[in-house]
Amino acid sequence: MGTTHLRELREGLRSLYQLDDAYGGGDVRSLAARHLRRVRRVINASRYPETIGRQLQLLAGETAEHCAWLAYDADDQDTARRYWGEALASATMLRDSSLEILVLSSLSMQASYEGRPRDGLDLARAARERATRFGSPVLQSLIASREARALSLMDDGKTAGKRLADAMRLVERHGPRSRPSPGWAAFHGRAELDYAQGLLYTETGHHRAATQYIRAALAHQDRTYGRNRALYRLTLSRSLLKAGDVDEGAAHAVDSLEHLEEVESARVLRRLHEVTGLLDSHDSASTRDAAEQLTQYARLRGAA
Known about the structure:
Layout: H1 3-23, H2 29-45, H3 50-73, H4 77-94, H5 97-113, H6 117-131, H7 137-153, H8 157-173, H9 190-203, H10 207-220, H11 226-243, H12 246-260, H13 266-280, H14 285-303
Helix pairs in contact: 1-2, 1-3, 2-3, 3-4, 3-5, 4-5, 5-6, 5-7, 6-7, 7-8, 7-9, 8-9, 9-10, 10-11, 11-12, 11-13, 12-13, 12-14, 13-14
């Protein structure tokens, strides 16, 4: 076992990241689990120098973390917790701060998603403590946005707004001379922060203001992130419907179906059901037609 084999295994993980970004985690989960089993087999059945061994252990931890993310995206939260626990154990054993920060910030995201914002805040703050030494504005911005999300769910909109403003300023500070962020944080940027601001306005009932930021998030989102674009468009539809812009909201809901054909994500399908429910609550030709198309699509996906 040498550097060439290690490079091949790492390239396999990178390919899984790309597939997930484009198509969602539903169909990638089993591939990631097999890749993790392969890395474990190599660790336990091969001969290699200590330096390669450490890299293999780190790769196993990173792959376990990605398995957790894919389970989270599939809304299989117990499995996600198990994989994140495995990744955190690897980070602790190897004393790898980057992996530890990734896992803590991911657990914060999951806690907020599950309605445990206090846990989400504590986990984000623990990640922030460890990230200080990196001095990376992008990494600090990402963690600040996780804190803001938890605070907003705790009905502390004022503090949440301040932390999100901090997150935006940190991203603006990032430049060629800034300390680089870990590769796993590459997804974080303007689109993520616009989306987070839109969600903050949604939770405080300012749906028209939310639409401005979610539009911006959709405009700024790189087209390689197919799953996120589908989620953003459905979220924009939801905000428009709640703001009373019924016809435009219905149009975006129908337009999202083209993106959904390429995506397999339980989180996205959950948002689809939310939007379908909102369409059903309005009585107009456009909303009835849109609700019928979304319901038919959801049935087909369920049957599949």
